[in-house]
Amino acid sequence: MLGLLALLTAQAARALEIAFTAVAPGVYAYVGDTEGRTYDNEALNANIGLIATPQGAILIDSGATVRTAATLAAAAQRATGQPVRWVINTGTQDHRWLGNGYFVRQGIPVYAHANGRADMQRRGPEQLSANAPVLKDKQAGTEVVLPTHWIDGDDTELTLGGVTLRLVHRGGGHTPGDMMVYVPAHGVVFTGDVVYVDRILGMHPVSRSRPWLATFEALEALQPRIVVPGHGRVTDLAQAQRDTGELLRALRAHMRRAVDEGVDLGTAVRTFDARPFAHLKHAEVWLPQLANRTYLEVEQE
After folding, report:
1. Residue 282's pLDDT is what?
2. Burial class of residue 234 in the structure, from the number of CB atoms within 10 Å of its CB (0-12 exposed, 13-18 middle, 19+ buried)
3. What is the CB neighbour count within 10 angstroms for residue 42?
4. For residues 114 and 147, is the Cβ–Cβ distance under 8 A?
5. Three-state DSSP class for 249?
6. I want to staple 99 with a disulfide (CB 3.0 to 4.6 A). Which of 63, 135, 153, 289 is the partner?
7. How far apart are CA 74 and CA 15, in angstroms?
8. What SMART domains would the database entry show (predicted)?
9. Backbone torsions φ then ψ of 75, nearest 5 degrees
């Protein structure tokens, strides 16, 4: 019995297994869990990107804990044969940036958009508190550590080892700091939480559908060959449009009409045609909330 308990305890504390898969030459993705945050997935229910350069690897997002960040760094080294040289946070959800401390303590630059700074400062402690009962010992040592470099403006180019990245921001969306990372040489874009496929997108009090749609339109203008979404399988622009773009447009159009015609919130939410999006995972939970938040946002515009 003691041996069995020891085995079960060891299995429960086992580190998350992370392996990056190539999506283009020198460009990789890890596709995370599409369910909720759990002890086993270490709150990494999101996708992570990786880009190899002759001067080191660029990690797209740092995970929700320093433990996960260390696992990501080791997986990046295995995939590219290079240590992580830069980290880019694509947004201000916990799994995008709370692992920053692992890299900052090693002097590794961490980039994020300045529009997300206040949100990180305000919600970072809340995110740690919310994850603590789920992650338990796996959150040990994780603190709110802000990025070291802030990006301003809509479009910024960074180059490391001859590999150029275009960072695209249009005011946020899912979070105020949402920023896409485009690799022009390979037509690959890491969208962060701008794009969800296979599962329904989520909205929170900090989410805004108007800049979110503007960011999505910037994605369409890029015409990427490969889309690495924030959640769901690696895909193409067409599926991103079906699962995210069309939903954002439908929500805003319906709620705009409802507000202009004086339709009350309850009726507007009830009459939104959710059938085209019913196939998306968790649609039954999130769609009423998406409709509710979009109505309130449009009402204030």
Report:
1. 94
2. middle
3. 26
4. no
5. helix
6. 63
7. 12
8. Lactamase_B
9. -65, -35
Cβ pair 231, 36 in contact under 8 A: no
Buried/exposed 81-113: b ≥16 CB within 10 Å, e otherwise: ebebbbbbbbbbbbbbbbbbbbbbeeebebbbb
Asked whether the beta carbons of 213 and 297 are under 8 A apart, the reply is no
The pLDDT > 90 percentage for the chain reads 95
Q: Which pLDDT score, from 0 to 100, does residue 15 have?
A: 77
Quick one: tokens of 64?
Answer: 């929700």
pLDDT > 70 in the chain, percent: 96
Q: In whole angstroms, give the CA distance from residue 219 to residue 217.
A: 5
Tally of residues, the chain: 301
- Which tokens belong to 165? 């990245």
**Domains, the chain, ranges and CATH?**
2-300 (3.60.15.10)
Residue that is written with structure tokens 């960072």 in the block? 167
Phi first, then psi, for residue 243 (nearest 5°) are -90, -20
Amino acid at 146: L
pLDDT at 130: 97
27-30 β-sheet, strand order:
21-24, 27-30, 48-53, 56-60, 84-88, 110-113, 149-151
Rounded CA separation 89/147 (Å): 8
**pLDDT tens per residue across span 27-43:** 999 999 999 999 999 99
Nearest residue to 277 (alpha-carbon basis) of 254, 298, 256: 254
Mean pLDDT of 43-54: 97
